[in-house]
Amino acid sequence: SGGHRDKGRGSASLALGAQLCANASHALLYAPDPGRLFGRIPMRIAVLMQMRFDGRLGFPGGFVDPQDGSLEAGLNRELLEELGEGAAAFSVGPAEYRSSHATANPPPRVVAHFYAKQLTLDQILALEAGAPRAKDHGLEVLGLVRVPLYTLRDGVGGLPAFLENSFIGAARDQLMEALQGLGLLEVGQLPPARH
User: Fold this and answer.
1) pTM of the entire structure?
2) Which residues form the Nudix hydrolase domain (predicted)?
3) N or C: which end of the chain has fewer CB within 10 A?
């Protein structure tokens, strides 16, 4: 996807390069899930993504405005707009920073900052219940989806089939890195990489 990843320190300065690029911040929100599909397939972890207005899958978040003051403040504002009042129960901070990815083709050049935040299952359920009442629901966001973190017996259903969807920007790579990097799935559980 022709970008640059930086796994440096947690929070970048908004002032840095503010004239040269736009900043966007997105978050992978997840929680342990003891549920079982059909009573036998462990769910293990609930991971939220969303169907975007353009028909692609992505993570909640969006563009950070200079008046937000920080990448995290902009991200938390966007989470409230896209997910509703359930997002007021937590905030994403510098400790949850994972990486940054710059698009290769200006204009405008966008630097996407990626975060991952562990929530409780009750917080995930509150987000799912409240999202249809969020300001951006039905506009920028068409709905929340959970990532199926299992593979069915046919070897295709579940995560392998989910990964065949269309993702925005680096979202697919960010998902795969976070699943492995956070220990949500082990290497042997991950589908083979696409070429």
Assistant:
1) 0.85
2) 20-177
3) C
Token pair 């939220």 is found at 48
Q: Is 166 helix (H, G, I), strand (E, B) or coil?
A: coil
How buried is residue 49: exposed, middle or buried, by Cβ count under 10 Å (0-12/13-18/19+)?
Answer: buried
Q: Residue 192 domain-assigned?
A: no
Report the residue count for the chain.
Answer: 195
Residue keyed to tokens 């040269």? 20
Distance CA 151, CA 41 (A): 9
The token pair at 120 is 């409780």
The CATH code of the domain that includes 69 is: 3.90.79.10
Rounded CA-CA distance 118/185 in Å is 15
Tell me: pLDDT of 82 over 80: yes
Interstrand relation of 97-102 and 61-63 (parallel, antiparallel or unpaired): unpaired
Q: Which domain holds residue 20?
A: 4-184
112 occurs within a structural domain? yes
